[in-house]
Amino acid sequence: MSPAPQTIAHVDAEKGFSGGEAQVFLLMEGLRARGWRNVLFCPPESASQLRARERGFEVRSVEMRNDLDLAAVAALARGFTECGAGLVHLHTRRAHWLGGLAARRARLPAVATRRMDKPLPARWRARLLHERLALRTAAISKSVEAQLLAAGVPAERIVLIPSAVDPGALAARAGRPQLRGELGVGPDRTVLLTVGQLVHRKGQDLAIEALARLRAEGRDVVLWLAGDGPARPALERQAAERGLGDAVRFLGRRADVPDLLAACDVLVMPSRAEGLGVAALEAMALGRAVVAARVGGLAEAVIPDATGLLVEPDDVQALSAALARVVDDRGLRERLGRGGPQRVAEGHLAHQMVASYEALYRGVLPAAAAAQEAGGAPAGRPPISACIISFNEVDRIFDCIESLRFCDEILVVDSHSTDGTRELAAAAGARVIERDWPGHVAQKEFTIRAAAHDWVLCVDCDERVSPSLRAQIEALRDRGFPDRAGWTMPRLSSYLGAWVRHGSWYPDRQLRLFDRRRGRWGGHDPHDRVELESPPGRLEGDLLHHPYRSLSEHLQTIDRYTTTMAQGLFARGKRARGIDLVTHPLARLGRFYLLTGGWRLGWRGILLACLAFHYGQLKYAKLMALQVDTQPPPGPGPQRTGQGCLDAQP
Predict the structure, then answer these.
(1) What does the alpha-carbon distance between residue 477 and residue 470 come to, in Å, rounded to a whole number?
(2) CA 583 to chain centre
């Protein structure tokens, strides 16, 4: 779905150029390729201004002297209006404040990116920045997300969008032998490299101390430090005092970081704090082993013993030991390097990041702009948010999202998937929120409240909107959803290779399309339902359902659901009798097989009827087990001892 040309105003208040600015340009390049217009607002004579001109981006200069620079707020607001911006993206701490105020003054929606892994300012200010001034905040790592949550920013306001790299742009220009020769290093010497500002939090002093220990043990190792900053004089003194001589090279700011990575053997990142660490991503993309501190996003990006080694921060002894391992074991270095590109591909590629930001923009753009992007529909047409909850559904999430392309927003709330579900959903254009699992009802209710629009279409990962259902929903949307607060739809399920059109599985009407202002999710886990303030309308297009990948998964689901059901019944004071183990299962079997025509399904009907019986029996058996577990034994009696015999208790 290619976007219509929209203008994004990017605000970056930094005069220098570091990893954050590199990410801004990587994003703008990707957006430009997708048809978006980008205008960069930055200080005059800043590194970003010069680079924007070199790369052909529109750029406007605004001096942003401090957080109370009201002249900058006025200039930014005027600039946003003049360039026709539809949305403002705030990229740095000062930009969050000044650009956020300017966006509010210009009556434009704003989003922010938070990159720093450190506590936010006072809670009131954090909430003002990330709730009032920015509609959504992108955290580049889970550690940054945790800092936002700790400051009181609501989870529904936060989107996890990791930093990324473009492996194609990292090709080395100079060969490894050439660059090593220029820096006076032979082909057989082991080269360690640090990349970043020379500041205390980057921990280059720890790398220098570790190098001294390695060389004292007889290892022929050199250290290159790429970057500059206020800590350089102290680091140079430290290297001299440790007698390291030309074993340490201060390279200053370098534009050839890919060449340096290609020429080194190990990237060292002993940071004391790190939002994510783009240098680590670049090194892994180029197949270089990484030794890093277990801090912030570094601990998430680097997989121990797969792409690198992690050590505790500020622990020189551990850092030295880890470096000794990779220096002494060339096979280990090569194995760690081979794991890097695959790790980067798991959510850290440039196109994945751009797709996630594009989905974020779409979620906050005004409804009129969303309607225009959808193909020129009337500006007054109510937009729809598609709402999905997920956990480890990487094999099903993409098809689900594809069936929802007609919606104005696709929101996925994920419960910490470990199989790449979040990354694939973001790459497919969904806005993704990561959140702990509170239960079916609570998670679905959270999802509709976090959506950008009031009309919501709730779909599970194992469901697809059929073409006929889509046509009916679009027709209703174009008419403004008249008369009703919601609509039900028949759900058609597949089972072991066939569609189930008989039995209690069909039509199995589901209320999934509704106005959240007049409805909410209710019911009892795991069987949730929408509670609407008035009777719903009826749609006839099918919601396609693929509930089980196999019979084994069906049995596991029955076990899991009956446990949840029994616990819920017990908590609500319900109690089972022995007769319930027969009557309820028989009622389920009879309803499915006889009353609703399950017998027409052949052997599948017999199997599903038996499983319906099993479900009912297991639910009440577990409820009875809970009742027994809470009751004391009737009295003393024979007890089994450790020797396997029965002793009479006195």
Answers:
(1) 10
(2) 46
Residue 461: name the closest of 419, 504, 521, 519 by CA: 419
Count the neighbouring beta carbons within 10 Å of the beta carbon of residue 29: 16
State the amino acid at position 574 in one-letter form: K
User: Tens of pLDDT along 236-277?
Assistant: 999 999 999 999 999 998 888 889 998 999 999 999 988 888
Tokens encoding 550: 């196999």
* Domain shared by 175 and 63, yes or no: no
Contact between 189 and 220 (Cβ < 8 Å): yes
Examine the domain organization and report whether 15 and 137 are in the same domain: yes
Same domain, 133 and 178: no
Cα–Cα dist 517/477, whole Å: 16
Contact 165, 350 (CB under 8 A): yes
What totals of helices (H) and strands (E) does the chain contain, helices first?
23, 28
The residues, ordered by sequence, that sit 6+ positions from 255 with a Cβ below 8 Å of its Cβ are none
What would you measure as the largest C-alpha separation in the chain, in angstroms?
Answer: 93
Quick one: which of 132, 184, 127 has its CA closest to 150?
127
How far lies 68's CA from each of 11, 71, 94, 151, in Å?
Answer: 16, 9, 10, 22
Question: Is 368 inside a domain boundary?
Answer: no
Same domain for 158 and 172, yes or no, is no
Question: What does the pLDDT look like over 289-323, one tens digit per residue?
Answer: 999 999 988 999 999 999 999 999 999 999 999 99
Residue 117 has what DSSP assignment?
-
Residue 440 belongs to a domain? yes
Looking at the domain assignment, is residue 354 inside a domain? no
Locate the DSSP E strands across 201-305: 221-226, 248-252, 266-269, 289-293
CATH number, domain containing residue 223:
3.40.50.2000
By DSSP bridging, strand 221-226 and strand 190-195 are: parallel
Contacts of residue 240, Cβ cutoff 8 Å, sequence gap at least 6: none
Q: How far is CA 352 from CA 88, 210, 345, in A?
A: 21, 36, 9
| Tally of domains in the chain | 4
The SS3 call for residue 482 is coil
Distance CA 490, CA 508 (A): 6
Is this model's pTM higher than 0.70 or not?
no
Structural domain span for residue 95: 7-164
Least confident of 69-78, 204-213, 223-232: 69-78
- By the 8 A CB rule, do 566 and 626 touch? yes
Distance CA 532, CA 549 (A): 32
Chain-centre distance for alpha carbon 461:
16
From its phi and psi, is residue 347 left (phi > 0), alpha (psi between -120 and 50) or beta? left
Residues 128 and 221 in one domain: no
Residue 421 lies in a domain: yes
